């Protein structure tokens, strides 16, 4: 009997929506795993809801503009120096509200595709105005230019919610929302009040505070926020990864101190930039030579961390922190690993026993058997063992009665983060 092992790369994309703010650039991740040189491949990025549907088409190393939807002209590109590593991610410049939607990353020669949802956000600081009558002070709060639809509420000096009527939300012809609300407070009280506007889906918060003291008052608007991903970032062992962290509204971070840390480590620092220089003496030793900031993006408030040659020990919670602004953001990194299963065949007088083993997985994978039509086959519980390197090996047997007729069997091993490999006999 001959055994054929067929391994095809899968197209891997994010499991959660990508969030981008209007006017910013964004990368929609898509890569071949296992890595395969995509330089000579046709790569198609499309929006199925558009006509023509194509956002970016690369064929024979050239972009085909004639197939492209007109609103994407001059705003899309692939990361050409990463194509040889199987990275076919799309860079979309100067994001517009109309860019929001579902994108398809497709390689025709491999018949592989993956879908990525892009959520486009917009936010602005609220504006407070004061109206006085004989007995009370009415605080009016309005915040324009939000997307998606935000919520607004009032807080007192202790951070407790104030009772107020339902806010009014209006969507303008540009698709952006304006939200407004009023609250009445007693004229005799000296206190601070905050109008806060937030949108959880894009993880944006803006607030303006006012301090009342007799007939005097002063306003204070919040500084930039640090914005990061809402969901964990997934990286495969041996690959590079970027942990996104961005000041919004954008603010030049070139001369700021930027600290990246793992709170569970000692010393906790992964990367520290101070006065334009990296401070290696503060750094945890396993990150030496593997971290960097995107220096050409610092002027735009992008303080994302690039981590090279990811290791299993890199998995954990990272803190992006700018001390001078007292702003921080936490990002979870999940590290994955996958490998193709190996089949061996053992025969006895009455049955054929198929043994399947797949080594080097993380997190803990599942294993199951399929017949030639893709139906699940009954088998005992797989055995999963974690090795000293922290990676999992999963094994399982399938026992079938002997027959003169040829049969086709497939095994699959799946990691929870989306990796998939097949061997076929």
TrEMBL record:
**What region holds the Ig-like domain?**
23-105, 108-211, 238-330
Question: Any keyword S-adenosyl-L-methionine?
Answer: no
Basic residues: which segments have biased composition?
A: 398-408
Q: Name one GO biological process term.
A: T cell receptor signaling pathway
Entries under PROSITE patterns matching the protein: IG_LIKE
Q: Which InterPro entries match?
A: BTN3A2-like_Ig-C, Ig-like_dom, Ig-like_dom_sf, Ig-like_fold, Ig_sub, Ig_V-set, IgSF_BTN/MOG
Please provide the record's keywords in A-Z order. Answer: Disulfide bond, Glycoprotein, Immunoglobulin domain, Membrane, Signal, Transmembrane, Transmembrane helix
| Pfam families associated with the record | C2-set_3, V-set
* Coarse class of the protein's main subcellular location: membrane
**Care to name a GO molecular-function term for this sequence?**
signaling receptor binding
Q: Where is the protein found, in the record's own terms? A: Membrane
Q: Name one GO cellular component term.
A: external side of plasma membrane
UniProt keyword Magnesium, yes or no: no
Q: What are the start and end residues of every segment in region (Disordered)?
A: 394-425
- The Basic and acidic residues compositionally biased stretches are 409-425
Q: Where is the signal peptide?
A: 1-17
Family classification: Belongs to the SKINT family.
Q: What is this protein called?
A: Ig-like domain-containing protein
- Which species does this protein come from? Myripristis murdjan (pinecone soldierfish)
């Amino acid at each position: 009997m001959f055994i054929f092992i067929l391994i095809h790369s899968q197209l891997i994309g994010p499991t959660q929506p990508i969030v981008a703010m209007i006017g910013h650039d964004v990368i929609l991740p898509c890569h071949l795993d296992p890595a395969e040189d995509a330089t000579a491949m046709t790569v198609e990025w499309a929006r199925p809801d558009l006509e023509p549907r194509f956002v970016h088409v690369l064929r024979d190393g050239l972009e085909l503009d004639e197939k492209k939807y007109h609103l994407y002209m001059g705003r899309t590109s692939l990361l050409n120096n990463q194509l040889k590593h199987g990275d076919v991610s799309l860079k979309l410049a100067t994001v517009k509200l109309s860019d929001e939607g579902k994108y398809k990353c497709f390689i025709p020669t491999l018949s592989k595709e993956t879908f990525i949802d892009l959520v486009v956000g917009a936010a602005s600081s609220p504006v407070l105005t004061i109206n006085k009558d004989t007995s009370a002070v009415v605080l009016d709060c309005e915040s324009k230019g939000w997307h998606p639809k935000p919520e607004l509420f009032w807080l007192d000096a202790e951070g407790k919610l104030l009772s107020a009527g339902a806010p009014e939300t209006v969507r303008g012809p540009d698709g952006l929302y304006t939200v407004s609300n009023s609250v009445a407070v007693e004229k005799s009280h000296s206190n601070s009040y905050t109008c806060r506007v937030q949108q959880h889906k894009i993880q944006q918060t803006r607030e303006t505070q006012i301090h009342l003291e007799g007939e005097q008052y002063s306003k204070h608007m919040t500084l930039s926020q640090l914005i990061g991903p809402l969901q964990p970032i997934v990286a495969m062992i041996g690959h590079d990864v970027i942990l996104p962290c961005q000041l919004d509204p954008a603010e030049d971070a070139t001369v700021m101190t930027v600290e990246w840390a793992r709170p569970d480590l000692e010393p906790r620092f992964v990367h520290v930039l101070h006065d334009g220089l990296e401070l290696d003496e503060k750094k945890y030793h396993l990150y030496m030579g593997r971290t960097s900031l995107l220096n050409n993006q610092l002027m735009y408030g992008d303080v994302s961390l690039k981590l090279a040659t990811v290791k299993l020990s890199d998995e954990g919670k990272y803190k992006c922190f700018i001390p001078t602004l007292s702003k921080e953001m936490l990002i979870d990194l999940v590290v994955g690993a996958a490998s193709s299963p190996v089949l061996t065949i053992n025969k006895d007088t009455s049955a054929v026993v198929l043994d399947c083993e797949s080594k080097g997985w993380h997190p803990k994978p599942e294993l199951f058997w399929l017949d030639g039509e893709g139906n699940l086959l009954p088998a005992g519980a797989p055995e999963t063992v974690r090795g000293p390197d922290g990676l999992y090996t999963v094994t399982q047997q399938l026992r079938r009665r002997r027959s003169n007729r040829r049969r086709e069997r497939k095994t699959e091993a799946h990691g929870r983060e989306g990796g998939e490999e097949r061997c076929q006999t």
